[in-house]
Design a protein that fits this description.
With 280 residues, the chain is mostly helical. It has one domain. It is built from eleven helices and no strands. The protein is globular. The termini are far apart. 37% of the residues are buried.
Length: 280
């Protein structure tokens, strides 16, 4: 049995790798995806660092703004790659009928979804690498080596978490035109209270607790703790990691409601009920 199962596992792994590669090519060929994934986080990083320079944050003793924006923009880069792009790309593939055609092929659905998540994580990792490189070269912010194991775990957990949440949200997105407004409309308010654009130390306590219940603030705060100049230990923050794991598990359970067929729009319903030869 083991000699038969091993080739089957290898074959499934090759299919998943091929699907990840295919999804990466589709993502990079999209006119908007590279801009939102790579350019926007780097543009915000440079702009905010130039505006605030090397000033320290009043509510965080000894922490300079460039040191704060390294983990903050890393989290933002992950959200752009694994949340915004997955919602936008998956909704577009569903409405064009690609997902429905895939269901009619021998390709298992979980392989396609794995390709989506895997490609988003690879692109997100490249985007985070760009943020780290840009922070280190012009602004002199170094990545702490001792906490690197925990930092890498949080990067992987954050990308997996937001990819699964994005897939779980796609049934609520009616059309490709609504994908970006819904994605940014749900992400940007959360980012403003989750230590991504500005420190939220002076915000109301209830708002900080509310933001901590969502995955973005635990991710951003954990990365900040690991990348702080005086960080020690391996960088594993178990409560925050548990929050990310809980959101990932919940989103994975909601994938039972994932929709493969295009949504029925009012225009589509009128077209089916129109008289022959009449243009709706």
């Amino acid at each position: 049995m083991s000699t038969i199962a091993a080739p089957r596992r290898a074959s499934k792994l090759r299919i998943v790798v091929a699907q990840v590669r295919y999804q990466c090519l589709l993502l990079l060929r999209s006119p908007s995806a590279p801009f939102f994934t790579f350019v926007v986080p780097l543009m915000l990083l440079v702009t905010l660092d130039l505006v605030y320079g090397s000033r320290t944050i009043p509510t965080r003793v000894g922490l300079r703004f460039p040191q704060f924006y390294l983990p903050a923009m890393s989290a933002f880069a992950m959200v752009n790659a694994c949340y915004i792009n997955v919602i936008n790309g998956t909704t577009l593939a569903r409405q064009t009928g690609m997902l429905k055609r895939i269901r009619g092929t021998p390709l298992p659905g979980w392989v396609y979804l794995s390709g989506r998540v895997g490609s988003a994580c690879i692109v997100g990792l490249l985007s985070v690498g760009g943020v780290w490189a840009l922070s280190a070269l012009p602004f002199g912010v170094a990545v702490v080596g001792s906490t690197l194991p925990g930092t890498l775990v949080f990067v992987g957990a954050g990308m997996a978490c937001f990819s699964c949440i994005a897939l779980a949200i796609t049934p609520l997105v009616p059309t490709p035109e609504a994908a970006l407004p819904i994605a940014y409309g749900t992400m940007l308010p959360l980012a403003f209270v989750s230590d991504v654009f500005f420190p939220s130390d002076t915000s109301p306590t209830w708002l900080q607790h509310l933001a901590s219940a969502f995955p973005l603030r635990p991710l951003a705060r954990s990365l900040e703790a690991n990348l702080a100049p005086r960080a020690t230990g391996l960088g594993f923050h178990w409560f925050e990691l548990g929050t990310l794991a809980a959101w990932t598990a919940g989103a994975a359970l909601l994938l039972v409601f994932f929709r493969w067929d295009p949504a029925r729009t009012d225009r589509g319903r009128r077209s089916r009920h129109a008289a022959p030869g009449v243009t709706p």
